[in-house]
Structures are given as structure tokens and as C-alpha cells.
Amino acid sequence: MTTFITGGASQIGLGLARRLKEADRSVLFGSRAGRGTDGFTWVPFDWDDASTFENAFKRQDIKPVESVYILPAMAIDPLPKVAPFIDLAIKKGVKRFVLISASECVKGGPEMGAVHGYLEKVVLEKRGLIDYVALRPTWFTDNLSREQYTHIKEHDEVVTPLPKARIPFIAVEDIAQAAFDAIVYEGVIDPEDEAKSGPILIGPDLISYDEVAQILSTVLGRPIKHRIISRDEALARYISYGIPEPSAEFLVEAELNLGKGSAERLATDDEFAVARKVGKVGVKEYVEKNKGVWLK
């Protein structure tokens, strides 16, 4: 059967698609343009245009869609846009949803947490007929080659508002593998089994940004420093990426909470032991594999 992947060519979506293709499973992408990476089938899909939702289920040249990977639209409350698609997908025969949420998003709370809460509600109503997995990764190692790219390459620095926070960074590669595992799992996923329905994804290293800067310095062969910025500077940075201000405010608060140990506890506290899933790619391994990105 086919997996429909929302979010266009997101890093995790592409990693998931490649794994599914290698496993000889059908993949259908949705994007605003209706096209993208060669080797995959695409249809127009836009969270802002509900008339495109049917496109996920119209193709006659592929197997029926039975699983969906959801990357929600970025908003404090994405549910008004996402819920109608979930309802349609269920009517069209989708049996499993895999949501990319975040460790900072509380089920039923703002951002992806709202979608997580809705999925649990509809799955409990149709227990045994559909199920879901809400992946809750901590902060991405890959942000070093995205949000931090210019700072590292051009200014020899990593920029954060976090002097001492220790974080179990997770690589996109490990998140994509977790998404693949969730899609292909053959059993029924109990929504009340948090280890299966809401795993917390962390990496193998619990390190600070000072240590990240040291790893970059060693691998790149030049000094990379960790420069501390203010909350307002961090907020302005997120807004400059095109993130809506309410979501940028949410991200800054989540980032500042790292300094209070929010991510460190995911790796160390017993209360998260059952739901905790540890990836394989450490920060040093990631930097060594991708060092060409930051070479001058």
C-alpha cells in the first residue's frame, strides 16, 4: 500500500521516502507545486487550500493510500487546517498516521501538540480500526547545517541564547528511521502505550553548545566559538527565517527552557525511560560526515 507524505521535500520526509522505496513500498508526496525530487510521484497539496486534500487519494496508477506522514503547517494552532484532512483520510481508508511533533509540544497543547491530541481523540473513537504515532524529537543536530550554517561558515561561530544547556541532539537520519519503523510496524498501536504511540526521540550524546563548538573546531581545523545572544536577538533570528511571530515566540521559549534542563531530563530522568528512543548518530559523527558544508 501507499504512504502519503505531506510537507513537500522536507528532510525527514525525503529520508522516510527513500527508506520506503528501498523496502519496495509505494510513496506519494504532496507539495504546493505538485512536483519535487525525481524518482517519486507527487500531487498538489497545500494545508492552506482544503480543495487540494482530495489529491492524495485520486491517483489511479498507484496502490491505495493506507498511511500518512503529517508535517503540520507551522502555526500556534494548526488543527483547523489539519483536522479536516485527517477526517477525510480516515473516510478514504487510511489506517495509520505518523505525526512529526516535538518533545516540547504537549499532547493537546499548542503547535503540533494540538494535532497529537486530535489524533488520540479520533483513534480512541475508532480503536482497532486506525492508529497513530506522534514522533517527539528533541532539537535537531541538522540545524547546524541549516539555521547555524551561515554563522559557522562565514563567522566561525555557533549562536544561541544558551550558555550552559545540555541537549541530546537528534539527527534527521534517526528521525526518518523512526518514522519508517512506525509506518511499517505490522501490529496495532495502542494509543495509551506512550512508548509506541508517542516516543521521545533523542540522540546518543548529551552535550552543550560549547562542546558542539569544540567538535566543529576539531573537525574543521579552525576555531569555532559559541556566542551567546539575548532572547530578543533569538526571536528576531527565528522571525528572519520566515517563521510567524507567535510560532517564533513559542520556539524561543522552548529554546530558553533548554537552559532549565527540559531536554536534559529527557535523557536522564526515569519518568521518560519508557517513551525514550535513542538514535544512533552522534554530533561528532554528523559533523564529520557533513564537514564539507562548512569548509571555506
TrEMBL record:
<dbReference type="InterPro" id="IPR036291">
    <property type="entry name" value="NAD(P)-bd_dom_sf"/>
</dbReference>
<dbReference type="InterPro" id="IPR051604">
    <property type="entry name" value="Ergot_Alk_Oxidoreductase"/>
</dbReference>
<dbReference type="Pfam" id="PF13460">
    <property type="entry name" value="NAD_binding_10"/>
</dbReference>
<feature type="domain" description="NAD(P)-binding">
    <location>
        <begin position="7"/>
        <end position="182"/>
    </location>
</feature>
<dbReference type="InterPro" id="IPR016040">
    <property type="entry name" value="NAD(P)-bd_dom"/>
</dbReference>
<protein>
    <recommendedName>
        <fullName>NAD(P)-binding domain-containing protein</fullName>
    </recommendedName>
</protein>
